[in-house]
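Example 5.3 — Glutamyl-tRNA reductase
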Amino acid sequence: MIRGGVVTGMCVTHDSGGIDDIAAASPESQAAGVETLLSAPSVEEAFVLSTCNRTEAYVVTGEPAEGLAVLRAFFADVDMDVVVQMHHDESLVHLLRVATGLESVILGEDQIIGQVRTAYEDAREAGGIGHLLELAVTKAIRVGERARTETAINEGVVSLGSAAVRLAEREHRLEGETVLVVGAGEMGQLAARNLADAGVESVLLANRTVENAGHVLAGIDAPGEPLPLEALPEAASKAGVIVAATGRDDPLIEPDHLGEREQVVVDLGQPRDVRPGVADVDGVTLYDLDDLEDITAETREQRADAARDVEAMIDREYERLCEQYKRARADEVIAAMYESAERVKQCELETALSRLEGDDAFTDEQREVVAAMADSLVGQLLAPPTQSLREAAAEDDWSTINTALQLFDPEFGPDEISVASQFTGTPDVSVGATDDD
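Solution (predicted C-alpha cells):
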C-alpha cells in the first residue's frame, strides 16, 4: 500500500499577531509540541517551529479536515483571528519562505535557518518526521542555505540582535558606554557581539548560568563581566543600554531597576523579559519586538532585488519538491506492482518445478535457468506499465494509477488514491477533492 497524507499548517507570526499572541501559542518546547500533535490518532507526522517571532505547527494526516481539527485544538489558547491556516500547497511554500528569511521581521535574517534546523532535529527525535516532512523540511533548509550564498538577501542587518543595536544607536551613544545583555542564548550572543562591535566600553552579561555568560563574553571584542540574574537590579542601574533576550515565563526587568539615568531598553524576549511599566519611567525608552519593524524597513528596501531572486528560487524549488513527491509516489506504486507480481511468480515457479522434477531432480544450474526465465518474463511484462505509471504520476493522472493498483491489489480503493493525489499538492479530478481542499 502506498503512503498517503496531506500537509496542513497553522501559525501565529509577527505579521498576524503581537508578542502576547505568539507567547500564548508557544508550546513548552518544540519537541513537546510535536509530541502533543502526534498524540492525535489522525496525525502521522508533525513539525513545530517556535521562535520569538513565530509559532508554527504542521501535521500530516489522511484528510485536510483532520489536520485542521488537530491544529485548531493545538492553538486553542489563541484568538483564531491571528492564526493563519495553510493547506497543503500553502504549507510547503510557506516553509520555503520561512527558511529563506522572506517571512522574518528582518528580511533575509540569518538566525531563522539555524532555528529551522533545530526544529527539524527536535521533531525527528520526537518521532514526528516521516517521508513527507523529511522531504519538505530538508528542502526548506537547503533552499535557505542557497538563498544566503547565491543572493544578497542577508547583507546588512541580519539578525534581531543587530537590529536591536541599530535601534539603540538611534537613541543613545554606544561608544564608551556600559551596556547590559540579559540572556546568553543565541539572541543574547548576537546582541553582545554587535554591541561590542559598536565600540561600547564594557558588556555586562547576566544569565541563569554564569559560566555560560563567561563563555559568551570570551568570544567578543570588548571587556565584559558575567553576572547571575540576581545581580540584575544593580547591573540595570549602571547600563545605558539594556538588551533582554531570555524567553523566560516572567519579566526580569522591573520599573524600579531603572530611572537613575537616560536609558534605552530593548526587549527581545518572548514572552516579555521587561515589565511594560518600564516605558513609564522617566528617562527610559523601551522597545519591544513590535518596534523592530521600523528598523527593518530600511533593510527590506535594500534587499528588495535579492528578495525577488529568492522568490524565483522558491518557485523553482517548489516545483522540484512536487516532482520529488510524484516520483516517490510512482516508485511506491511500481514497488507494489512488482511485489504482487513477485508473489505470483514465486508461487507458480515452485508449482511448475515440483511438477517437472518428478523422480529426476533438477540440478541447481537448471533451476537457476528456469528462475531466470521467470524473472525475465516478469521484467519484460512490467516494463511498459512501469513507464506508463511514471508518466501518469508526472502528469497527475491518478485515474490510471488507481486502475493499475486495483489490478495488482484488489484491496486498494478510491479512498487511498484520493489521499495519494493530495500528497503531491495537486487536485484529484478523478475521485473528487474534499471541500477542505
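Remark. Residues 160-299 form a domain with the Rossmann fold fold (CATH 3.40.50.720).
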